[in-house]
Amino acid sequence: MIRVTDSISLDESELDERFIRASGPGGQNVNKVSSAVQLRFDVRQSRSLENDVALRLMALAGQRLTNDGVIVITAQQHRTQERNRADARERLVELIRQAAVKPIKRRATKPTKASKERRIEGKKIRSGVKNLRRSKPGAD
Question: What is the pTM of this model?
Answer without folding.
Answer: 0.62
